[in-house]
Amino acid sequence: MIRLKNVVGTYTTVRGTVDALDDVTTDFQTGNIIGIAGESGCGKSTLLKLLYGNIEYPLAMSKGMIDYGMKGPDGRDITTENISEHWFKKISYIPQSSMSSLNPVVKIRKQFLDFQDFRSRKEIDETLEKVVAFLRELDLTPEVLDAYPHQLSGGMRQRVMVALGTFFQPDIILADEPTTALDVVVQKGILLLLAELQRRMKNTMFLVTHDMGVHYQLTHKMVIMYAAKIVETGDSEEIFSRPRHPYTKMLIESLPRIGDAKKLQGVEGKPPSLWDELRGCRFAPRCSRAKAECRERCPELAAVGNGHSVACLYPES
Amino acid sequence: MKNFLNYLWQRLLTFFVVLFIGISVLFLLPRLMPSDPIDNYLQRLQGSAGQALTGEQVAEIRKALGEMYGIQGSLIDQYFGYLKRVFVSHDFGPSLAAYPKPVSELINLALPWTFGLMLVSTITAWLLGNLVGLVAGFFHNRKFATVLETLGILIYPIPYYIFAFVLIIFFAFLIPAFPLTFVVMPGPVTFQKIVDIIYNSFLPALTLILVNFGWNVLGMKSLAYSTKEEGYVLYARLKGVKPRRIMYNYVARNAILPQITSLALSLGSIFGGALITEMLFSYPGIGMLMRSAISNGDYNLLYGTITITIVAVAISTLAIDLLYPLFDPRIRHR
Fold this sequence. Notes:
The complex is a heterodimer.
Chain A: E1 2-13, E2 16-28, E3 33-37, H1 44-52, E4 59-67, E5 91-94, H2 98-101, H3 108-113, H4 121-137, H5 154-166, E6 172-176, H6 184-201, E7 204-208, H7 212-218, E8 221-226, E9 229-235, H8 236-241, H9 246-253, E10 302-303, E11 309-310
Parallel strand pairs in A: 3-7, 3-8, 5-6, 6-7
Antiparallel strand pairs in A: 1-2, 1-4, 8-9, 9-11, 10-11
Helix pairs in contact in A: 5-6
Chain B: H1 2-31, H2 37-49, H3 55-69, H4 75-89, H5 103-138, H6 143-155, H7 160-174, H8 191-228, H9 231-239, H10 243-268, H11 275-280, H12 286-296, H13 299-327
């Protein structure tokens, strides 16, 4: 279990500070693919940065704590302070842009070896053997090791990124829009690969994407975010079949389905600016069901049964 | 391979066109100068003879000198004769001022001095400047990086001849640690001679190193700083790659590419010498030779010295174009 307790992620800007993640308390069950969805600026990336422990000015975790429930090889608990020592061994990251994430003037081989220091030629060869075996499992020919990034196709490069991120079999994988820049056929291949690897390694994978269809097909759990808050969490099946938060419902209704007769509904309006003083429910101005109370009282994330939680005063039934 | 041969062929063609244009412009330039080598010679002759020459005598001497120096006939004739000398016989004839010494002999004497001084100072400044610039750019938010960068900013705008003066005043005049003028005895190469050369060349070299150092620091600092913001550097950091390794394998490896081009260009200008530095330190290099050629209207010597510069620059740009794929795999010809 990965527990977030009252986590606040604050950015310092020239205009002052702004909380891009505002008092988030939630538990993530390990061994699942956890989808994170929401509009741009809702705090998805901030949540990933805090989880990864990549906290650098102007971002700071100004309140709260994250309990990873893991121990490092030295037996100490992994915390936000020391998690960077375990990057890619215990927690890894798959970026969205494979072209700009690989060193353009160095062969892929070297980029598989620069995680660690080697004491002998033999150690390097042993690691390389493991890399080759692992690449074969991922349907990649070992020849990619001798290629420069620009010699590979977009799909191959993203597979290399997946291979880099999963090589050490980390307990947690953060995938930040891993298929955004790819065409749908290649996208499908990468997503199936991720799902397959997760099933085999039984690790926890956080998947951020705007594509609700991907979430529906791949994830076990869903986290819906809106304006720096988590508004709904639960099993994906449950969330997609019985969304309780009006925002989630609108997101799902914007998904096209085969046989749709009526025109699709978009989500009207835009999220509130985090600079403004936010009172009451942050979704209330766009919510068709909002009552007077919604504009006064901020709803907390509360369990509604079946491991399903929602932050709404008047959830959908 | 076929692509490469195709590229090579085109690149060589450009090389020869550049040479041809450069050398043609070079032919015309000295002829636009107000001083004429024959007038200069006549003046010297009259001065030493102590008596005025008659108009007839002058005309006769003019004709004889013109034949001897190979500067008679129309401009077109001279031009073709000149092209033949440069491209076919590689001979620039005798020096007009130091007649009858051949130009090639004068150049052969001066070239090693200039080459040694410039090569050592250019490479030293490049290595030091890039190392300091890399560190300053990579640790841009640390205090010592600001100090290093300020050093570069303070040094680079100062013209190198000012540096030369300051160094001469302090280290040759006030504190006579180094000689005011360059004195190395001719003779066989001995250990003592090498020490002499280093001792005598130290100040001119230091002048050149300091200025190039400042440029390289600033160039590399901004390159390293912008490379540090690239996605692959961020990813390497998130991979847990050690900062030292990120600095060398990621930032330096990518930021050095434009600096390699700039090194090649400055290596090309090595043969041109450092005119003012050589004059100030009376260093016996190509720069000094060029200066005397200009003031004496010595066409042949000027052609010789400048042609060497043109050929050197053209060859070094050719070399960098052909060698660059070794450093940047993205432009390799397959």
